[in-house]
Specification:
Number of helices: 16
Shape: elongated
InterPro entries: MFS_trans_sf (IPR036259), POT_fam (IPR000109), PTR2_symporter_CS (IPR018456), SLC15A2 (IPR043381)
CATH topology of the largest domain: Growth Hormone, Chain: A
Oligomer: single chain
Keywords: Membrane, Peptide transport, Protein transport, Symport, Transmembrane, Transmembrane helix, Transport
Membrane topology: Multi-pass membrane protein
Strand content: 5-15%
Structural class: alpha+beta
Radius of gyration: 29 Å
Protein name: Solute carrier family 15 member 2-like
CATH superfamily of the largest domain: MFS general substrate transporter like domains
Family: Belongs to the major facilitator superfamily. Proton-dependent oligopeptide transporter (POT/PTR) (TC 2.A.17) family.
Helix content: 55-70%
CATH architecture of the largest domain: Up-down Bundle
Length: about 550
């Protein structure tokens, strides 16, 4: 069934909606995860950063497991369903762990970590399957429509992530439950979206084109590679040289399998430099963690009006509010009125709450004690600054000492707009191309596996962040420059590698080779049924 007379199958609508809901679920949970670590579990910046990146890495290592289950055992459709159930369970466990009345802090940590592990296996396991399953819905000749599908598919990813990173922080901060910020609700809404994603995916079952699994691909591939290595080691001096080291497996394994493994290897080699892109891209998350850590470790209420996401650091001074607190050295309690905001500072060095106030000149501020009333001049309270005002009783009245803990903002927040434009444009072009390339260059039996290989570049990027950024202990700006410089170098290397890569058409294997039977073995030259065909002889398109 096609959409409105086009070559787009109706089934992809269910897949795109499923992906939107799943990405809302995933990024919605991650949007408040660092706040949860720092403010709810009371972890420090280093531990929060390490766990965050470890979780992200696990989410992008597990696609290999999902791909192997799909291509070798259950097929893509059933794999998505079963692992989505695991995904939902993980969200539910994570949400329960955020309820203060459920056990003590140890229980909260255990449930949170268990939930994150289940989420990582769920989201990682379905990642390569959903994209590849969407590609499977198109007929072989509709390559242009399939290419556009991957663009729409990635648009749904970004739409879900953008919407969720706006909604869930609002649910956490503006909705109060259990006497504080409602993390249970902020995690529960993403859980509900994942349930919707699962229901939508199942609803399209009757419309899907479902390719059966190809058997235990991984075991077969590993045995083929192992045999080729052993055979080459034993006979390399006695036998004539071969054009590719995998051809040493021809005595036992079908040429088609060997050609497919060669195709996968050529793409995986091309992926080697790519993790550096994600290492730089994920620096924005690290900066966000440092900002949140600073806010909650230094000024408890300071960050409650802040909702920023991106490559920021407290010393970059891009905050758009100013905050103020009072320290009262007087022997009487003092109530201070700054504009429309009320502060209370207890006697004998009591400290008021940190409250954001509008920018402006504050002269004649009223300070009331039980016995008297005073007026003080605070002067200008500027954007982005944090002020501590010390009040003291002198013979001539109440005096003050105003200290600027964080200097007023001197960089407009709009300067982040071009940064995000370039970062987003780079990610969109990079990711859409990678998804489509991974699908188009993979043999039918290994499409999910190669999708998983593409996703693993993200995992290794997070590992690089953990090793370099956390181990080196550099300043934030130094890390940015380091990763940016490394990415420039890697881009040059990748450009050279890409120039020498030539596209192949995996579907041509069906035309070149006749189907191999289970009993067929290429043990002797008399039993060979197919002529040797190298990848260089296959129909090609253009260089990258």
């Amino acid at each position: 069934v096609k959409l409105c007379g086009t070559n787009y199958p109706v089934s992809i609508a269910f897949i795109v909606v499923n992906e939107f809901c799943e990405r809302f679920s995933y990024y919605g949970m991650k949007a408040v995860l660092t706040l949860y670590f720092i403010h709810y579990l009371h972890w420090d910046k280093n531990l929060s950063t390490a766990v965050y990146h470890a979780f992200s890495s696990l989410c992008y290592f597990t696609p290999v497991l999902g791909a192997l289950i799909a291509d070798s055992w259950l097929g893509k459709f059933k794999t998505v369903i079963y692992l989505s159930i695991v995904y939902v369970i993980g969200h539910v466990v994570k949400s329960v762990g955020a309820i203060p009345d459920v056990g003590d802090s140890t229980v909260h940590v255990v449930l949170s970590m268990l939930g994150l592990v289940l989420i990582a296996f769920g989201t990682g396991g379905i990642k390569p399957c959903v994209a590849a399953f969407g590609g499977d819905q198109f007929d072989e000749e509709h390559t242009e429509e399939r290419r556009k599908f991957f663009s729409i598919f990635y648009m749904s990813i970004n739409a879900g992530s953008v919407l969720s990173t706006i909604v869930t922080p609002i649910l956490r901060g503006d909705v109060k439950c259990f006497g504080g910020d409602c993390y249970a609700l902020a995690f529960g809404v993403p859980a509900a979206l994942m349930v919707i994603a699962l229901v939508v995916f199942i609803a399209g079952s009757g419309l899907y084109k479902k390719s059966p699994p190809e058997g235990n691909v991984l075991v077969c591939v590993c045995k083929c590679i192992g045999f080729a290595i052993r055979n080459r080691w034993k006979n390399s001096k006695k036998s004539p040289k071969r054009s590719h080291w995998l051809e040493w497996a021809e005595e036992k394994y079908p040429k088609r399998l060997i050609q497919e493994i060669q195709m996968v290897f050529r793409v995986l080699v091309l992926y080697i430099p790519l993790p550096m892109f994600w290492a730089l891209f994920d620096q924005q998350v690290k900066g966000y963690i440092q900002l949140i850590s600073f806010v909650f470790s230094n000024h408890s209420n300071y960050g409650r009006s802040i909702s920023l996401k991106g490559p920021v650091h407290p010393q970059m001074k891009i905050l758009i509010f100013n905050f103020c607190r009072f320290i009262n050295t007087h022997t009487e309690n003092i109530n201070i009125t700054v504009g429309t905001d009320e502060f209370y500072a207890a006697a004998n060095y009591g400290i008021s709450q940190n409250i954001s106030v509008p920018r402006g000149e504050y002269n004649g501020v009223v300070c009331e004690t039980n016995s008297d009333q005073y007026h003080i001049d605070l002067g200008l309270l500027d954007f982005g600054a944090f002020y501590t005002v010390i009040l003291s009783k002198e013979s001539n009245g109440l005096t003050l000492k105003k200290m600027e803990d964080i200097q007023a903002n001197d960089v407009h927040i709009a300067w982040q707009v071009p940064q995000y434009v370039f970062i987003t444009a780079g990610e969109v072009m990079f990711s859409i191309t990678g998804l489509e390339f991974s699908y188009s260059q993979a043999p039918a039996s290994m499409k999910s596996v190669l999708q998983a290989g593409w996703l693993m570049t993200v995992a290794f990027g997070n590992v690089i962040v953990l090793i370099v950024a956390e181990g080196a202990g550099m300043e934030q700006w130094t890390e940015f420059l380091l990763f940016a410089g490394l990415l420039v170098a890697v881009s040059i290397i990748f450009s050279i590698m890409a120039y020498f890569y030539t596209y192949v058409d995996p579907d041509q294997l069906d035309k070149i080779f006749r189907e191999d039977t289970d009993d067929e073995k290429v043990g002797s030259s008399d039993s060979k049924k197919n002529e040797a065909v190298s990848l260089n002889d296959m129909p090609k398109q253009t260089k990258m």
